[in-house]
Design a protein that fits this description.
Blueprint (H helix, E strand, L loop, with lengths): L7 H14 L5 H21 L14 E6 L4 E6 L6 H9 L5 H8 L11 H5 L6 E9 L6 E6 L5 E6 L5 E8 L14 H11 L7 E10 L14 E9 L16 H12 L7 E7 L5 E7 L16 E5 L2 E7 L11 E6 L15 H24 L1 H24 L2 H4 L4 E4 L4 E4 H6 L7 E6 L3 H5 L2 H8 L5 E3 L4 H8 L1 E5 L5 E8 L10 H13 L1 H10 L6 E4 L8 E5 L5 H8 L11 E5 L4 H11 L3 H18 L7 H12 L1
Parallel strand pairs: 1-7, 11-13, 16-17, 16-19, 20-22
Antiparallel strand pairs: 1-2, 2-6, 3-4, 3-6, 4-5, 7-8, 9-10, 10-13, 11-12, 14-15, 14-17, 18-19, 21-22
Helix pairs in contact: 8-9, 9-14, 16-19, 18-19
Keywords: ATP-binding, Chaperone, Coiled coil, Cytoplasm, Nucleotide-binding, Stress response
Function: Molecular chaperone. Has ATPase activity.
GO molecular function: ATP binding; ATP hydrolysis activity; ATP-dependent protein folding chaperone; unfolded protein binding
Length: 642
């Protein structure tokens, strides 16, 4: 029979597919196994209503046969097979899908057509220089052979086949300087590909495996007998068939979930939590997710790759689909198996469609609820989780201009100076006295150091709690939220703002105390102007403090950028020169203030300037800032010690 030409569009599309669409050649086997599974599905569906089929579900199988010497790989199924017309229609027109037609006509939930036969089939030409298909349709006495060596066309001839089904015979290419194909005629290579991509196909995928065994010992056994071994072959099922995520949670033990997680995701410890999620309706999927008990060594590096393994009806589509997880839950591992995701021509690249977004949103809500349940029901385990991944949650609150703050704020933990333990923002607010105006926090590198800040003592002496923030993202996280829900005295919904104890009005003073400080600042304007001049542009203002109790001096920030935020930004490339507006605050009741005032009144300008620089350096040290000139500061202190 003369060679028949592919349609022009099909010829172009095949050439594109072979040379560029599929970036990973080994997925050809996934595609052909999926097609075989589809063909079996069709015959199995028919058997449910047609007794003449004479087959049960247990009778179906996909057989792989390897002829290494001749570089031939055969994929056989005992599914519904194809007539001559179907071979020509499905394989002569590359983009036609018999499976898709079948799926649209049959809505039974037990029938699950994975892919589009015509499209996936042509991936075989990535690894084979000739493809032969022998098929006999169920109910037909005829078998037909379709054969092609690529884009030039195909031949369709009568053939012999005793039973219904399809055989696809691949003549695997020889190695070239740039491409290796030996793995596709290697027993171990084929087994590895099946386990990776098709482990959960619902029918057994079988292959004769070469094995070794010890020969029986002769009787009687000679004294110089050496054990002998022999090779033999055994038909082995390569796939597990039933995905653990499709089983009911009651059918799976904790140990089975833990072992699956450790094996699948190469971890050496059990996960902190297992999340099972099933949804039917607008988005049909099964998900099995895991919250690890420790972060990967590369978690906070550019090398870390987030994402969930994505399956379509048990067939692996992507190892790590990043679109299924928001960044703030990037630590979650797991798989998602969906029956109705839209896939593009290669099955490798997902369209950014509404189905994927629906699954993303559902998983986001599920993960958040599971973390909240851990927080409420197993606080110790949650705090361990927080040590590992809390930073990522806080980045999630801050990122995208606080878009996700409302979703995540209930998960946040911070250290309480009053209770000496980690607390949630809700727990902090619940214990606030009625007269407390703000959620107070201090930000710096060390909790011990923060608790000793002058303003910290003032807050704690009032009986108010203080959150001690020790990570660089902490203050940015609270500032982007601005406030947290709090019911007012009448039980109505309201909010309470966050307040850095080293910035602005703390709301701790009476109106009389504030007025007294303002008056004292005005009275000492000449002194403060002289001090400000001595410090040049280092401070925006010098004034009498309302936040100091026993300490002589402190620094505060005037404006949205705090001193701690300045320190964090100073470590970022491109942020040089970003400064907070600093205010030098003095305790008017401290003996040092009296000395300063006396020097100014006596006209001792040098002493005022020297003391101003000393006090500013002391305030810098208290705030954890580097002293501008350590040598000059040391010399000035030594002069005082003489």
């Amino acid at each position: 029979m003369a060679m028949q030409q592919f349609q022009a569009e099909s010829k172009k599309l095949m050439d594109l597919m072979i040379n560029s669409i599929y970036t990973n050649k080994e997925i050809f086997l996934r595609e052909l196994i999926s097609n075989a599974s589809d063909a079996i599905d069709k015959l199995y569906f028919k058997s449910l209503t047609d007794s003449s089929v004479g087959m049960n579900k247990e009778d179906f199988r996909i057989l792989l046969t390897l002829d290494k010497d001749n570089r031939i790989l055969t994929i056989s199924d005992n599914g519904i097979g194809m007539t001559r017309a179907e071979l020509e229609e499905n394989l002569g027109t590359i983009a036609h899908s018999g499976s898709l037609d079948f799926k649209q006509e049959n809505k039974d939930e037990n029938i699950d057509i994975i892919g589009q036969f015509g499209v996936g089939f042509y991936s075989a030409f990535m690894v084979a220089d000739k493809v032969t298909v022998i098929s006999r349709a169920f109910g037909s006495d005829e078998a037909w052979q379709w054969e092609s060596s690529g884009v030039e066309g195909y031949e369709l001839t009568p053939a012999e086949k005793e039973t219904p089904g399809t055989e696809i015979i691949l003549h695997i290419k020889s190695n070239t300087e740039t491409e290796q194909y030996d793995n596709f005629v290697s027993e171990y290579g084929i087994v590895a590909i099946v386990k990776k991509y098709s482990d959960y196909v619902r029918y057994p995928i079988q292959m004769e495996r070469t094995k070794s065994r010890r020969k029986p010992e002769p009787d009687p056994k000679p004294e110089d007998y050496t054990p002998e071994w022999e090779e033999y072959t055994e038909l082995e099922t390569l796939n597990s068939m039933i995905p653990i995520w499709k089983k009911q949670k009651s059918e799976v033990t904790d140990e089975e979930y833990n072992n699956f997680y450790k094996d699948k995701f190469s971890d050496y410890t059990d996960p902190a939590r297992v999340i099972v999620s099933r949804t039917e309706g607008t988005a049909n999927y099964n998900a099995l997710l895991f919250i690890p008990s420790h972060r990967p060594y590369d978690f906070y590096t550019k090398e870390y790759e987030k994402g969930l393994a994505l399956y379509a009806s048990g067939v692996l589509i992507m190892d790590k689909c990043a679109d299924l997880l928001p960044d703030y839950f990037s630590f979650v591992k797991g798989i998602v198996d969906s029956q109705d995701l839209s896939l593009n021509i290669s099955r490798e690249m997902l369209q950014k469609d509404s189905q994927l977004k629906l699954i993303h949103n559902a998983l986001e809500k599920k993960i958040k609820n599971e973390l909240n349940a851990m927080l409420v029901n197993d606080r110790a385990k949650y705090e361990e989780f927080w040590k590992e991944f809390g930073r990522q949650i806080k980045f999630g609150v801050y990122s995208d201009y606080g878009m996700h703050a409302e979703l995540l704020r209930g998960l946040l933990l911070f250290y309480s100076a009053k209770e000496q333990k980690m607390v949630t923002l809700e727990e902090y607010v619940e214990k606030m006295p009625a007269d407390q105006k703000y959620i107070y926090f201090a930000a710096g590198e060390s909790a011990d150091r923060l608790a000793k800040l002058p303003a910290a003592e003032l807050v704690l002496d009032k009986g108010y709690d203080l959150l001690l923030l020790t990570e660089d993202v902490d203050e940015f996280c609270l500032q982007i939220m601005r406030s947290f829900p709090r019911k007012d005295a009448e039980g109505k919904d309201g909010t309470v703002e966050f307040k850095n104890i080293n910035s602005g009005d703390l709301g701790l003073e009476s109106e009389e105390e504030k007025k007294a400080a303002e008056d004292a600042t005005a009275e000492n304007k000449a002194l403060f102007d002289q001090m400000k001049d001595a410090l040049a542009d280092k401070v925006k203002e010098v004034r009498v403090s309302t936040r100091l109790k026993d300490h002589p001096v402190c620094l505060s920030a005037d404006g949205p950028l705090s001193i701690e935020m300045e320190k964090v930004l100073a470590r970022q490339p491109g942020s040089e020169g970003v400064k907070s507006d600093k205010v030098l605050e003095l305790n008017a009741n401290h003996p040092v203030f009296a000395v300063l005032k006396a020097a100014q009144e006596a006209g001792d300008v040098a002493k005022v300037e020297n003391y101003s620089r000393l006090l500013y350096a002391q305030a810098q040290l208290i705030e954890g800032l580097p002293v501008d000139d350590p040598t000059a500061y040391t010399q000035a202190v030594c002069e005082l010690m003489k």
